[in-house]
Amino acid sequence: MNDENLIPLSRRTMSERRKIARMGGIASGKKRAQLKSWKEVINAFLNTPLKPGRVSGTIKSLAEARGMNLRAQDAMVLMQIAQAMKGNTKAFELLVGLSGLFNEEQGEITPLAIPDDTGLIIPAFDGLAADIKRHLHTHYWIKGGRGSTKSSFISLQIPKLMIAHPDMHAVVLRKVGNTLKNSVYQQIEWALERLGLLGEFSFKKSPMEITLKRTGQKILFFGVDDKAKLKSLKMPFGYVGLLWYEELDQFAGMEEIRNINQSVLRGSSLSWCFYSFNPPKSRDNWVNEEQLVDYSDRLITAANYTQVPPEWLGEQFLLEADKLKARNETAYRHEYMGEITGTGGAVFENIQEKHFSAADMAQFTACRYGLDFGFAVDPLAFVVMHYDAKREILYIFDEIYEPKLTNRQAAARIQKKLPEGAGIHCDSAEPKSIKELKELGLKAIGARKGIDSVDFGIRWLQGLEAIVIDKKRCPNTYREFVTYEYEQTKDGQYISAYPDKNNHAIDAVRFGLDGFHAVSMAGVPPVQIWLPDFNTAGAVKPGEVEMVAAVALKATKAAAVLRDIKVK
After folding, report:
1. FRET partner for 164 with CA separation of 20 to 30 A, picked from 8, 179, 196, 316?
2. Is residue 393 a contact partner of residue 465, using CB atoms and an 8 Å limit?
3. Higher pLDDT, 556 or 197
4. What pLDDT does residue 37 have?
5. String of b and e for 350-366 (b: at least 16 CB within 10 Å)?
6. Catalytic residue among 247, 335, 399, 485
């Protein structure tokens, strides 16, 4: 033994202490370098997608390893992996200990702390973040205009969810593959940097993927223009539980989305799907129509740049927004506020959406019922509504909307929604169907039609203060009203005509409100007239409508007078 080594540090000079510390540091550095080498080798092999049994069947001795041009260190690691795959717990403990995945003191996997992103998301997304963390929904649609931080928000959630679920991988999609690198790939890099996780991930651009090094979890990037890669997608372990569609409106439609979900999420027990988009201008775009349907596993959230701290966006961004607002407010509302500005062809501008409570429903005491008969392809549409004549507000809160229903099937379905003795106003063009419904026990009444009755009925609906529809109870009625547009010429110009398509529920509403008519006469604009409810007053006698028209013709204030007239 060297007696020099027994002299304590307290009795040594400062130069001697520095020399000893330097030598210890060198030795410690060599030790750390050796451990790092082992850790890198083990992690490299552990993250290699090997089939069970392949290693044990390939590497059986050091001599065989040398023949495969492997280092002794590599061969030993492979042999330990082979033993661990056979169930050798000591080999397994050695591997995970050297790989850094286990806490040596506690003997368990060292978890990566989930970073806090509170300061990185806008307050408008706080509730959404809590919903995602608790997995209250599966599908999260996040919409907004420029600067709404919707994509930034999603890119922060993906690595957090991966850390929380070590067997879960992520797939990020855009419609076209060559847009990935400069958009979502860089967005994920940004999120990892802001979360302080860059050192935990490795990055590869061909094929495009980002890997959480300690677990081997991957974030894969694909363009849907190469569907073959998605269909053949297989992960080395676990499953794809995170899916992000960026620029959703660029995809072909819900059929394409469903097919992708079925392929990528196959076998997943827990998953989160994110969809980010700026709502297209036209209401009849598939994305805008799809939003009209409520699903229990889908949450739709909207945000805009006014909810974002100004310093996040920068002065120039705000100046550009203000310039566009001053120059073209419609474009500003679409591009920056994320609004559906339409194309100028919407027929109904007074639609409101509300989910009616039990208290709301209790107020609907004067209900009206309308029915449009379906055909082989067209659906039968039955609607239940309440009209507040004093406030001129129509409430629609129940529907049946289904193709290929026979009159007998329809009658059975409708009977469940009718109070005793209530009448249904139906399309009078179907007298045989009306007769059959009567024979089946329903009080079916043909709605009165006259010249331009469609035009008058729609204009009357347009003139209401509001048409309030429960989207959850009446998804098809709501969809028809908000997507119904004027007819267009071959040059795309709108004309004052109403297309006879995708309007079955609208027709049912018109029929159900039979008794509220618009009468047009020479020199007198269309006005609103209340005629009796068939449920209580019986049929209007011949000539009574003409009589009311004559009164209107003589009145100096026809609209005001006729609104108060009740034909008895």
Report:
1. 179
2. yes
3. 197
4. 61
5. bbebeebeeeeeeebee
6. 247
